[in-house]
Amino acid sequence: MIISTTPTLEGRPVRDYLGIVTGEVIVGANIFKDLFAGIRDIVGGRAGAYEGALRDARRQAYEELRFEAERMGADAVVGVDLDYEVVGQGGSMLMVSISGTAVKL
């Protein structure tokens, strides 16, 4: 499955547009991760716990997008857009959403 942010794929003409596909993941902030991230922010450096959680959420959202496209019989997803939003009471959760157009090449 080809997943691309571009609207077309060089040398691979789109034969059929199958529709919009999405993948969404919402992850809650863990109190221990918050504590250690706060300490790291004071001392300096990167917040590895948050980076790991963000990486996992992004991977899961891509997997959902790919699964939905495969279910529709797509060969690729073009025009992909990836967004991050803080949601929940007091911004306690992070939402990763990805969308694109499933196509048959």
Attribute tags:
Translation Initiation Factor IF3, 105 residues, 37% strand, single chain, four-stranded mixed β-sheet, alpha+beta, 2 helices
Computed CA radius of gyration, to the nearest angstrom: 17 Å
- Assigned CATH superfamily: Hypothetical protein apc22750. Chain B
The count of domains is 1
Which class in CATH terms? Alpha Beta
Silhouette: elongated
Mean pLDDT level: 85
SSE pattern: EEHHEE
What does the main sheet amount to?
4 strands, mixed
Low-confidence stretches: none
Query: What is the overall number of helices?
Result: 2
Q: Count of DSSP E strands?
A: 4
CATH fold naming:
Translation Initiation Factor IF3
Question: How does CATH name the architecture?
Answer: 2-Layer Sandwich
Protein name: UPF0145 protein FPZ08_09025
Family: Belongs to the UPF0145 family.
Pfam family, one: YbjQ_1
Organism: Devosia ginsengisoli
